[in-house]
Design goal:
Layout: H1 16-21, E1 27-28, E2 33-36, H2 42-50, H3 52-55, H4 63-66, E3 72-78, E4 81-91, E5 98-105, H5 114-128, E6 134-137, H6 144-153, E7 156-166, E8 172-181, H7 186-191, H8 194-213, H9 221-226, E9 228-236, E10 239-244, H10 247-263, E11 265-277, E12 282-296, E13 299-313, E14 318-325, H11 328-334
Parallel strand pairs: 5-6, 9-14
Antiparallel strand pairs: 1-2, 2-3, 3-4, 4-5, 6-8, 7-8, 9-10, 11-12, 12-13, 13-14
């Protein structure tokens, strides 16, 4: 979920004392707390920067980027555990006033909605307290997890910035400029569109899938059933089935997760999500799922398969009205899983 540093920042080291010189307020999200960064956080944050899932997007030895002059930097905590960092830089010209945000989270904290909570908390502060009307972020184009996270908060892609950032091997990679504009109603209203609600829906859906496939599985059948409409349609290469969201359906949910576990599937995550609102109550979602399986040392790998959903929102959040997939069973047979 890490994003590369913003190009507008002035690079350079910042003295240790300057970490304590600015005392921005502590910010509280739904689950995370953002507190001013302290010098004693350096060891823990550098360890996070060493993690492969973070180092891919933030090069090791980037402490000078964490304490970049002019930026206000927060430590991200959950229950007093340090999870990562979020910071912002401001352009204060009254005619072009804006803020740029960067973030990284530890591998263990990713995929749990904590990054989204941290970003929303900071954006709310930038809009409602510091008076900004536009906030930008600039993840690498292929950092799909970060792009999905930012979209779920309400950021929209503006365009690709070619050869934007030099990486460890000396080459340059592209970045996606993303922006969130305040329409005068605050951060909550900006992010509360049907598209954002659908993106948050799938973030939670994927998190429940991951929990059900974990080594110590946690299956929330009630929440999984609540993701479907009272009546729904499941379609694949063989035809379509109309289902009812009743007790029989609820009882089949643990059975479905057990099927995936028997196949040796260890993780199931979303690698691509496109949302198209159809009207004020319905949306089309195109999802590319990636399953990682392990049956033996000689039989491990990944399978990707697309699923198209139609979701309906009638007051209690989006729910699945229609799910269309290809021949998922064939993909499993080709890899010797069934």
């Amino acid at each position: 979920m890490a994003a590369p540093k913003h190009a507008d920042a002035q690079r350079g080291a910042r003295s240790d004392s300057s970490l304590e010189a600015t005392a921005p307020p502590v910010l509280h999200g739904e689950r995370v707390t953002l507190r001013p960064l302290r010098e004693v956080d350096r060891v823990a944050l550098e360890a996070i920067l060493d993690e492969p899932a973070v180092a891919r997007w933030w090069r090791r030895g980037e402490w000078e980027r964490v304490v970049v002059p002019g930026a206000i930097t927060y430590a991200i905590e959950e229950a007093r555990r340090l999870l990562g960092m979020i910071q912002f830089e401001e352009h204060l010209d009254p005619d072009y006033r804006r803020a740029a945000v960067d973030i990284f989270l530890s591998s263990a904290a990713q995929g749990r909605g904590l990054g989204r909570d941290a970003i929303r908390t900071l954006v709310r502060y930038l809009f409602d307290v510091r008076g900004h009307h536009r906030v930008t972020m600039d993840p690498a184009v292929d950092n799909e997890r970060a792009v999905h996270c930012y979209q779920s908060v309400g950021f929209r892609g503006v365009g690709v910035m070619r050869q934007y950032e030099r990486i460890a091997d000396g080459t340059y990679r592209d970045a996606l400029l993303m922006e969130l504009v305040n329409d005068g109603q605050g951060a909550d209203a900006v992010a509360d569109t049907l598209e954002c609600r659908v993106r948050r829906f799938f973030e939670a859906y994927a998190a429940r899938f991951a929990a059900a496939l974990a080594d110590t599985p946690r299956i929330d059948a009630q929440a999984t059933a609540a993701a479907f409409a009272d009546s729904f349609v499941l379609a694949d290469h063989a035809g379509a089935v109309c289902g009812r969201n009743d007790n029989a359906f609820l009882e089949q949910i643990p059975v479905g997760f057990q099927f995936y576990r028997r196949l040796g599937i260890r993780t199931m995550c979303i690698v691509l999500l496109r949302v198209t609102p159809l009207d004020e109550r319905h949306a089309l979602a195109q999802v590319l799922w990636r399953a990682h399986y392990e049956r033996a040392e000689s039989n491990a790998g990944t399978i990707e398969f697309p699923v198209t959903y139609v979701l309906q929102e009638l007051g209690a959040g989006p729910r699945i009205l229609l799910a269309m997939t290809g021949d998922e069973q064939r993909a499993y047979r080709e890899r010797g899983l069934i």
